[in-house]
TrEMBL record:
Its EC number is 2.1.3.2. PANTHER family: ASPARTATE CARBAMOYLTRANSFERASE, ORNITHINE CARBAMOYLTRANSFERASE, MITOCHONDRIAL. It comes from Jiella avicenniae. L-aspartate binds at K82, R165, R219. This is Aspartate carbamoyltransferase.
Length: 307
């Protein structure tokens, strides 16, 4: 059984193969008849301990388009509410012999721990501030479709890097494929050790966006901040919110990305989110294709199932 816990652990070749497979899944998803039967008889369970729109919906669609039986476990109405632990919940589901568990959890490392306990494949759909590997893969697919490559592109990842598993997975993937990665954030929203992650750090948007091919905005995760460290929305937007004046520092054909959900008027102006440089909706479409590729790679006909 194989897992996808993070971009860490994937080689550049692994990443490229997944992107190539996802490219083929884009074509499937654009057909009138979207369904394949490669996962006929396989069972996928989505187990989300944190809220999600894009990731959960696209994993569900991805499994169904591959022909799997997909169950969304409703954590809010499950026995987790009676105190059942993550591992007991996972082992209970494991006893029903799924082939794949897709797990989102608020604690970094929780999905890796769970993967050691169960007999099926596990995909990390986001664990705390650690990793969100399928998000980084869908972002890379979106970039590659527009720019034809990842290598040597200048990608500026901006905003709340401290709380962002999206930033972490993207930094790992973009570095693996040879991009020049920058992070642009106030000091209070940078994790310790960022200097060791192979990025150039900027504290001003005009400097960090200069000549960028891709501007990737991050959601300000106010719910994970405490009291005095929650910046005022007006001040944050003034210095770090992406508007036309700041975007003008990037290349004229720069792509604007955001993993969602967006805080309009906080980290990004609506005119930019909905403007010609934005590929935010395309990211969502690529999310289904990438998740199809990951699932097929892990539990498709050539992979071992939970037998
Ligand atoms: N980008 C992302 O993970 O969005 P959701 O939280 O809606 O799944």
């Amino acid at each position: 059984r194989r897992h996808l816990i993070g971009i860490a652990g994937l080689s550049p070749q692994d990443i490229t193969e997944l992107l190539d497979l996802a490219e083929a899944e884009v074509a499937v998803s654009r057909q009138v008849e979207k369904k394949k039967s490669v996962l006929k008889g396989r069972t996928q369970i989505n187990l989300f301990f944190e809220a999600s729109t894009r990731t959960q919906a696209s994993f569900e669609l991805a499994g169904k388009r591959l022909g799997a039986d997909v169950m969304n476990m409703s954590v809010a109405s499950s026995s987790v509410k009676k105190g059942e632990t993550l591992i007991d919940t996972a082992m209970t589901l494991n006893a029903m012999r799924p082939d794949l568990l897709v797990v989102r959890h608020h604690s970094a490392g929780a999905v890796a721990l769970l993967a050691q306990k169960v007999a099926c494949s596990v995909v990390n759909a986001g664990d705390g501030a650690h990793e969100h590997p399928t998000q980084a893969l869908l972002d890379a697919l979106t970039i590659r479709r527009h720019k034809g490559r990842i290598a040597r592109l200048v990608v500026a990842i901006c905003g709340d890097v401290l709380h962002s598993r999206v930033a972490r997975s993207n930094i790992l993937l973009l570095n693996a494929l040879g991009a020049e990665v920058r992070v642009v954030a106030p000091s209070t929203l940078l994790p310790s050790g960022i200097d060791q992650m192979g990025v150039r750090v900027f504290r001003r948007m005009d400097e960090g966006l200069k000549g960028a091919d891709v501007v990737m905005m991050l959601r300000l995760q106010r719910e994970r901040m405490e009291g005095a460290f929650v910046p005022s929305v007006r001040e944050y937007f003034r210095y770090f919110g992406l508007d036309a004046a700041k975007l003008a520092h990037a290349k004229p054909d720069a792509l604007v990305m955001h993993p969602g959900p967006m805080n309009r008027g906080v980290e990004i102006a609506s005119e930019i989110a909905d403007g010609p440089a934005s590929v935010i909706e395309e990211q969502v479409e690529m999310g289904v294709a990438v998740r199809m590729a990951v699932i097929e790679h892990l539990i498709g006909l050539s992979a071992e199932g939970n037998t």
